[in-house]
Amino acid sequence: MALVTFMSDFGTEDHYVAAVKAAILRSNPSITVVDISHHISQSDIGHASYVLKSVYRDFPAGTVHLIGVDLASKEPSRYLAVKLEEHYFVGADSGMFSLLSTQRPTAIVDINSLNPVESSFAAKDILGPAAAALASGKNIHEMGPAVDGVQVLYARQLKASKREIAGNVVRVDHYGNLITNIDQGEFETINKINGNKPFEICFGRERVRKLNKLYHEVESGEVFVLYNSNRVLQIGIHNGNASELLGLNLDAPVSINFEL
């Protein structure tokens, strides 16, 4: 099945999303187009990479992911097709590709080099047709000349030792939940090394000594802390907005301190 996902910062009030889908379907009407989100904050590469990284592995290998988000820059971006973890990504070389995985791409090509197109609507005129071609079976190496690498941005890194894991809030979701970069595997490894001794999770003025498994384990208005389906630490308030009620936002420090 030919499958293209589509994510953008276009919103849904205008014709832009439909125009890009029309460009894809005009190339191949049998392609299935799945919307990931069109409410990415404008030119917010961090927001876009978080959303796409959270979901692209759930799609079948060979899926093409069209990214309609670019930096607000005076310099025009290159438009690339990238093969990464057996998925294909089409978008501007904005640093986004470097934030999706710790693995290196196995193919990178410039899709607007062989027959350059100048357009004020690149998602429709360049990216859409390229995504359709890949989804229809065209070899990525036939899409354009190979490129040595992509623009690199660096994600926030956590610090880990036997005594402490120090991370940050990397996303505040629609519900006001605080999503961190503290990985469940990292926590479990250190906790095992420490003999599963007590630990304390610290954020803002809060100190929590227990991990929850489900949101509804706490009463309405109470804080919960759990590892979500993406295996990262998430902080929330049952039936409340944790970001607003705890006064925490993007980049807020979160730590797990182990008692040794």
UniProtKB/TrEMBL annotation:
Residues 167-254 form the S-adenosyl-l-methionine hydroxide adenosyltransferase C-terminal domain. InterPro entries: SAM_HAT_C, SAM_HAT_N, SAM_OH_AdoTrfase, SAM_OH_AdoTrfase_C_sf, SAM_OH_AdoTrfase_N_sf. The keyword Plastid does not apply. Keywords: S-adenosyl-L-methionine. It comes from the Bacteria. The keyword 4Fe-4S does not apply. Residues 4-144 form the S-adenosyl-l-methionine hydroxide adenosyltransferase N-terminal domain. SUPFAM superfamilies: Bacterial fluorinating enzyme, C-terminal domain, Bacterial fluorinating enzyme, N-terminal domain. Belongs to the SAM hydrolase / SAM-dependent halogenase family. This is S-adenosyl-l-methionine hydroxide adenosyltransferase. The lineage of its organism: Bacteria, Pseudomonadati, Bacteroidota, Cytophagia, Cytophagales.
